[in-house]
Amino acid sequence: MAALRTWIDACRPKTLVAAAVPVAVGGAVIWAYGDKVAGLSLCLVLAFCLAFALCVQVACNFANDLGDTLRGADTSARIGPRRAVANGDITPAQMMRGIWVACILALVVGSPVGLLSPWLALAGVLAIACALGYTLGPYPLAYNGLGDVFVIACFGVQATALTAWAVWLDARCSGELVPWTPALLAGLGLGLLADNILVANNARDYETDLAAGKRTTVVRFGRGFAHGLHAINLVVGLICLGLVFGWLPLLVLPWAVWQHRGFRQAQHAGDFVPFLAQAAGLLLVAGALCVTAACLGLTPAKFWLSR
Question: 218 and which of 177, 202, 205, 250 could share a cystine (Cβ 3.0–4.6 Å)?
Fold first, then answer.
C-alpha cells in the first residue's frame, strides 16, 4: 500500500486553492449583495460546499494522474512534480480505488447542500462527471483543448455562483433576489485566475503533451499563446473581481504584473515550474481580499449588477 505522503502528494495540495477560494467568495457575494446571512447557517453551508469542492478537486487530480499515465502524457521525460502512477508509487488499481473514494466522499459531504434543491444536486453530479472526464473516458476534455473552459466554468463560475445560491436557499432570503450577476461575474474572475494554474502546467508540459497527442491549447497554439493567455486571464480576472468587490482585490495588481513579467520571459519547460504555485498564491490572496472587502463593507454601495 502506498505511503500516506504519496497520497497527499497525489492530491496536489497547491491546486486545492482553486476549489476553496470560489466557495469563500460565493459566501462573500451573498454577504455583500444579499441578506446579511450570518452565524451557524452560513458556516455550515459553506463548510459542506468547501468539503464537496475539495473532494471533487482531489478526484480530478487522481483521475488526471491516472489518465495522463495511461495515455502516455506522463513519462520519465516529464519535468515537474512527481506523478504517483507514472513512477510506480501508486498502482493504477489503487488510484482507481482512490478516485472512487474521493467521489463517494464528495457525494456524502455534498448531500446536505444537494437536498436544498434538485438543481444543486444535479450540478454536483455533473461537476463530478466533468472532473473524471478531464483526462478519463472516451472524450477527455484535457486532450481536446477544453481544459481551460473546464477550469473557468467548473472551478470558477459554477463553484462561486452555486455556493452563493446554496447559502441563499438555506437562509430563505425570500425578500431578496438571488444576486446572480455579481456571483457569476466574481466566478468568472476567479476562474480566469485559476486557469493560470493550468496555463503554467500546460506550458511546462508542452513537449511531452505534444508527443502524447494531448491537444491542450498550448499544444495547439504554442507557448507564445500561453504568454498572451496568462496576461488576459490576469487583466480580465482582476477587472471582474474589482467590479464586484471594489478596489481592495486590485491591490494584487503589482504582484500580477511582476508575475506575468517572469512568465513572459519563460521559454523552456523548467522555466515554467514556479508559476503554478505563484498562480495559486495570487488566486488565494485575491480571494481573501474579496472576502475582506465584503466583511468591511467596501463593495460598491449601489452596484448596478446586483440584480
Answer: 202
